[in-house]
Each structure stands twice: as structure tokens, then as C-alpha cells.
Amino acid sequence: MNQRSIATVSLSGALDEKLRAIAAAGFDAVEIFENDLLSFNGRPRDVGQMCRDLGLSICAFQPFRDFEGMPEPQRARNFARAERKFDLMQEVQTDLMLICSNISSASLGGIDRAAADFHELGERAAARGLRVGYEALAWGLHVNDYRDAWEIVRRADHTSIGVILDSFHALAPSFPTRPIQSIPADKIFLVQLADAPKLGLDVLSWSRHFRCFPGQGDLPVAGFVEAVLATGYAGPLSLEIFNDQFRAGSAVRTATDGLRSLVLLEEQVRAATPAAPLQPRAHSRGVGFVEFALSEDKARELAALFGQLGFRKTGVHRSKDVERWSQGNIDLVINCEQDGFAHSHFVTHGPGVCAIAVDVDDAQKTMARAEALKALTFYQPVGPGELEIPAIRGVGGSLLYFLEEAGKNWDLDFEPLRSDASADRLDAVDHISQSMPYDEMLSWLLFYTGILDLKRLPQMEIADPVGLVQSQALINGNQGLRVVLNGSSASRTLSARFIHEFFGSGVQHVAFSCRDIFATVAAMRARGADFLRIPDNYYDDVEAKYGLEAATMAALRDNQILYDREGDGEFFQVYTHAFDDRFFFEIVERRNYHGFGAANAAIRLAAQTRESRLLTMPKA
Q: Three-state SS for 397?
């Protein structure tokens, strides 16, 4: 199996912190970035010893810049500079130096001139038992294509000179990857990997700020790796990421995400690599239950709201202060137990969702896959006769349970209560929306899509009255499971305020589906439910835009229901007031509509912001 490696530039923090995080994540090797070494308060040999103590090999030292094709006296100075770097490499005990293609305006260019420089450098490296790899930067002045870099290496014709291939520099400019297969494996000294979202930026800015791990972006990294492995290359696959979010985030989380991305990438190219296979992604069917952790007082308030929304109390736990509320295929759990995980979550976060259960076809295989992808397993003592449900840690420290056949294997813990389901109007959990710091979004994207059979929809940018919110929807094949990730770098958006008030990431709202939203809302209002107030100006615009019938428009206005249309599909949505100024519920009706009402998001956010301000205004 190819070594799993990562460049230290990919992580935040000091070099020693980075190395500990890399080792803890399970990497085999590391590329030492020169700036990390220069800023380290110790000798290069200390870095080498630290890596060995952590079980990490150093697969490369990088980068060495502006080397080839320079006029004198710069050329002579470059060789003297290279000798100094060779000294350093021998001290840290690595044998490979990365040289990236020249971007200096003083460089002369010319393939033969560059090849001659590399041949001479190869002689000097060989005398020390070292190697030099040449990488084409996509913005190199004379060499910006890996095929030209390979031609220079080929003409240099030296055993100590090879090519370094970087997926970003090949894929961002849309260079073909098939020619990689013609490069001899022993001349490929290192393979670096990075993904990126498709953005309309110059390639340098794109590279410096928006690279991400394979699977987090839009580049065909798997096809690039397949072309590399077709040569017989058996060296390291090393992540090299430049990303503002990663620089601001946790080194431990970023390293874990990096290892997870390599494991998932190996799964994609498994036919070409002998890596141990993962358990296949489970088929998810939907949400099994949503669990809320609250105090006794807040539990009574939430139970009253559930009743207004048409939920029935269908069970009480056999040994704990826990209730089950149901409607259609929806199960909600109210947990106000005074010890255990739910209580700890309540103490930390206050009232809110502490756990989500996902219905899958094989819970144990899903757990095995999650554990192989570095998810944190959760165990809690269970009482006599209680079921132990497989679980991992999810967003904000909440739990993600895995059920089989929804309620068939967890409702044994509840004493059933008789209730009449004939008046049920809600059918299922339509989607769950989780808010998190913006710099965590890529991490949780990889978490969900790596473990479950979820595909990402195009990321949306939503206008909050006081900033922008990035929204990433994930959906499974049968559309029975939808998860929306929201993050904002602005500090006053509704998403950011939720994180502040909830003391971390978590579920901000749960949406329920129905077949007739007008009848559903009427029944809820009859039970005392009230909904978020939407301005009349919005309905004037809807009427002008879509030309709906007068009766439909009146029903929308009277019930504060929002409307959207995609082709011949229609979408209706209405929102409750925020519970305890923290989380809220949404009722939706879909008529051949697959989105989330993005056109209405700014209207909803403005209405919620206005309402929250009114709630916090001092009374006269």
C-alpha cells in the first residue's frame, strides 16, 4: 500500500503541534515545509528525531524555489544554496527535495538549459545519497505543465532526478492525465494530492486559498490517482493543502480529515491499490428519531409545542425520564434524565437536539466503516433489558445513532401508550439543518459523505440581514435523508448567533413533510400553534411573480406560508417561532420539488432576525 502522507503546510499551529496531530491521525509520512522548519525553536535534527519518535518518516523537504534556468551569478548562488539545503536534509534525515518550477522574471527558460542544471544538481545530490524532484507549478513562468517538467527530467537523464506530480497543478488547468501513464514509475519521486471547488479565480489565488482534501472539492482526483498508479508507482500519496479555513482550524481535526480523505480515495481506486477495503456505504432510508435534551421545565414546554404540532405521546421509557412522541413516520424523544449523555449535553449546550438516529440497512457494517474513517465511537452503560444502539460522535459532540428498520429495534425500551394516529398530518422528517463555524463545514461534509450514502448538492450562499451564510445540502438516493450544513464567518448571522447561544455546533432546525400544508397548518392553529410572521411585501412579490390564484394567495398570506417554484415543481414552507430562542421547526409540502426553498431563505432569516430583536428589546 502507498504510504499515506501530508505536508505540514496543510495544518495550523507550530511544527511540533502539527507533527503530533499528523501522527495521531494515523499517517505514515510527512513532508516538512521549509517555513515550518525555519520557525521551529530547535535544530533540524530535533525535528527528525521527533518524527521518528512519532513513527513518521519524512518523505520530502520542500520547497526549493527559482532554481533552473537562471543566469550567472544567480545560477552559481543557487547551487551553493542547494548544498546548504542538502546539509539540512541530511540533518533531518530525509533524502528528497522538492523543486518547483521557476517563477522568477530573471529566469531564461529553455528545456535543455533546465535539463543541464538538473543534471549537475543530480550529480551533487547523488554524492550525498539524496534525490531531487521537479514539480511544474500551474503558474510557472516557463514550465507550468507536468509534461514539460517530465521532459526536462527525462533529458536531465540522472538517477537522482525525478518528477513530482501534483493533482492540483494538473487538474486545475485541465491538463489531460492519460500521459502520466507513460512516465516510468521509478522516475516519479512523489505524488501530491489536493482537491478544490470550481471557482472563477486565477489559478494562483485558487491554489493558495481554496485547496481542500480529496472529496471536498470538484476536481477528478480519483482519475488522476488511477493514472499514477497505472505506472506502477508505489511511493507516498501526500496531501498538500493551502486553505484559509484549515489555517484557522484545529490541527487535530484537519489531520483526521486528511487521513479520512485518503482512505476514501483509496476506496475509489481500490481496483488499482491493495489497500484494505472499507465496508460499503450503508443504504440509508431516513431519520429514525430525533432526541432533545432539556430540563424538566423546558421539557414540558417542548411537549406542549409537540402537541400543538399534532404529535402524540406514544411511549415512556421503562427506567428513565424519557418520552417518545410520534406522528406519521416521525419519532421525537424528550430526555430530561438527570444523568447520562443527554444530561451532559444539556449542561453544556442548554435545550436542544442531543442525538439523531439514522435508519440504515446494516448498523454494524456502518459502524465498522465509521470507525475505519476515524469517527469517534460512543458507548454508554445501559440498564437491564435496554438496547445498546450503535453510535458515533457527530456535529458539536452530539450523537449519531444507527438503527435498522427505524423503530423496530429501539422502541423496546419504551412502555407503549395508546393513542389515535388517525389525525396525523405530518409524514416524515424532511431534513435536518445543522449550524457550525464556517471553518468546520468541509470537515462535516467529508464526515457525512464518507460514512453514509449522501451526495452533495451545489453549495448555496444565503443572505442573512447581517452577513452571508454558506449552506451545503446533502441527500441520499431515495431522498429519504437530507442534511443541511450551514456556516457563516460573519459573527452576527442567525447561524452564528445560534452557535454562540448553543455553545457550539448543533441542530438549529428540523423540517417535517406533509401532503397538504394548508390543512396541516389549520389543524395546528386549532391546537394553539403560531408561526413566524412574514411581511406582506413578500406576498405581493409572489403574486406578481407566479400569478397564483386569489384563493391560494389568500391562504398563503393568512397562514404565513412561503412559496417557491422550480419548473413544474412547487414548494410550500412555514416556520414555528424559535423555541427558547434556540431552535425551530419547519413544515413543508413538496410537489415534484427537490430543493429547499433557497429563494425564500433571506426572507425567513430577516423575519427571524426581526423577531429575535423584538424578543430582546427592553420593555417600556
A: helix
